[in-house]
């Protein structure tokens, strides 16, 4: 069971004056839900074990294996983890590195992951001419070159779209049609379809599939069985879920995670 403390109570990264500081959190000791908060510093979230999703910039972002979510400083965000999650946080001083000005998922190399993990053991006020300071500089230089991935779900500030997103995030197995949702939010089906496309850039069907992928990747990374995930998402069979997953990502769930592990091992052996 997750602890009763909020992860935001651990320390205030904005009090540090170094270019980058890092911390390691085991969510067995903290609440799985981290409410909306904001940092002056930019924040990179890495999942060492388990999985995490973030809500920021009118989108839901997932942190799959070997990736991280970058949240620029000053952007309100919330976090939800699986109970077994262990996360590394890297907080970056504004202007200290050439990092994106918008939220995004970054592919993270084994080198960057190990550098961040090494920094989690350093004090926040490490001397500017110390080994830790040099590690921080290399970490930021390497991080600036990491490519972007696309593990996110647009949600919008529109109250009707937000209501649908909140409901389906809580119960992704809900198979209500666009017409069903239109009646619930007091709109015509055609008007809701136009609103969804305008606000998210996706049709309702594509948007819900992307939601299912976000949830599936989070749960599978957290150790859930494929059968369990298929049930959670309301699929009639495991095969139907696997077909959707493969069509969207080009491989089955097992192949997807095997390939990512193989890439990690290959990079480590170089």
Automatic annotation (TrEMBL):
GO function term, MF aspect, one: sequence-specific DNA binding
Keyword vocabulary terms for this entry: DNA-binding, Repressor, Transcription, Transcription regulation
Disulfide bond keyword on record: no
Residue intervals of the HTH araC/xylS-type domain: 162-259
Gene3D superfamilies, alphabetized: Homeodomain-like, Jelly Rolls
PROSITE patterns linked: HTH_ARAC_FAMILY_2 (PS01124)
Keyword check for NADP: no
Protein name: AraC family transcriptional regulator
Organism field: Azospirillum palustre
């Amino acid at each position: 069971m997750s602890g009763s403390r909020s992860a935001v109570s651990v320390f205030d990264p904005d009090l540090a004056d170094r270019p980058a500081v890092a911390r390691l959190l085991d969510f067995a000791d903290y609440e799985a839900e981290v409410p909306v908060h904001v940092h002056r510093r930019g924040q990179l979230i890495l999942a060492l074990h388990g999985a995490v999703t973030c809500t920021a910039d009118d989108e839901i972002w997932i942190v799959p294996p070997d990736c991280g979510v970058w949240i620029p400083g000053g952007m309100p965000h919330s976090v939800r983890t699986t109970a077994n999650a262990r996360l590394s946080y890297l907080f970056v001083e504004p202007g200290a590195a050439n990092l994106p000005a918008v939220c995004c998922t970054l592919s993270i190399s084994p080198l960057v992951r190990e550098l961040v993990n090494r920094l989690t053991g350093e004090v926040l006020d490490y001397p500017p001419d110390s080994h830790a300071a040099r590690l921080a500089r290399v970490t930021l230089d390497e991080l600036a070159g990491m490519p972007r991935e696309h593990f996110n779900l647009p949600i919008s500030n529109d109250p009707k779209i937000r209501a649908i997103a909140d409901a389906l995030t809580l119960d992704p197995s809900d198979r209500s049609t666009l017409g069903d949702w239109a009646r619930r939010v007091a709109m015509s089906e055609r008007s809701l379809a136009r609103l969804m496309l305008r606000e998210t850039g996706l049709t309702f069907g594509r948007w819900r599939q992307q939601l299912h992928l976000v949830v599936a990747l989070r749960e599978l990374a957290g150790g859930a069985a494929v059968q369990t995930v298929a049930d959670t998402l309301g699929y009639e069979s495991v095969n139907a879920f696997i077909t959707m997953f493969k069509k969207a990502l080009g491989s089955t769930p097992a192949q997807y995670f095997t390939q990512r592990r193989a890439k990690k091992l290959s990079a480590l052996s170089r």
